[in-house]
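thoughts on both lines:
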Amino acid sequence: MKKVAILGIGQTKVDEHWDKSLRELGGEAAFLAMQDAGVEKVDALYVGNMLSPMVSGQNQLGTFFGDWVGLWKQEAVKIEAACGSGAAAFRSALMAVSAGDVESALVVGVEKMTDKAGKDVTAALATAADSDYEVEQGVSFVGINALVMRRYMHEFGWKHEDFAPFSINSHANAMHNPYARLHEKITVEKFERSSMVATPINLLDASPVGDGAAAVIIVPAEKVMRRPRVVVSASAAATDSIAVHSRKDPMFLNAAYLSSKQAYEMAGVKPEDIDVFELHDAFSIMAALSLEATGFAERGQGV
């Protein structure tokens, strides 16, 4: 298997882009990545997206974006894995380049969420849960996370205010990131006064919806030894039961544990060797569980 490098990147600001369509957002990120990499063509296009059929009325995003950015004849597919769609598209491209099936690939992750009412977006997001045993019972993603968070607080003795640092830290980081959705510092007091969404999750425990896109160009590392690039040390993936109630332990992200364990072994590193850890924290409880599953905190101590 070949070592793979990221040769170019592109990103839009995450915002309410009323003036830009799905194709314009994804296309903007794609063109920026191609410009950054100094390429006009690639061998394959992988698009990560979850909501386009339900929010934008558009599927077949591989061909859709290939046509928009001038990539014809090449392989072009959409990859869907709920909140992990962008990462899944990246991994698909990574494996194709690493195996030697293609010499270059463009990966685009894009979502256009603000063109529908909040209730419609909530319903669309819920399609990532178990439709028979969760969604049909009226459970939303917020509700599922609220149930897990309430149990976690009961099991390990935490209070709601103990989760405030996650939101405070995210907002503090956003102040230095021009691409971030919000630029507003918050305090513990503001966190505690925030409107309740689904007890114990309040507005500042949850991420807002937004529109945005990011893209990368990946190639074999050996092809660009003299150029600035980032070599991918490892990538791994795993799954668990889709319904939370079917999991052996609803308060442990076993898929994150298995995939991170494999990635550490592939890269020859341990959690203590990592300088920057970026996790999926759509809800503050997921930040705590992610830290525990990936070895950065003991069970029940992710807060």
Q: What stands out?
A: The longest helix spans residues 22-37. The chain has two domains: 4-114+210-231, 130-206+262-293. The mean pLDDT is 96.
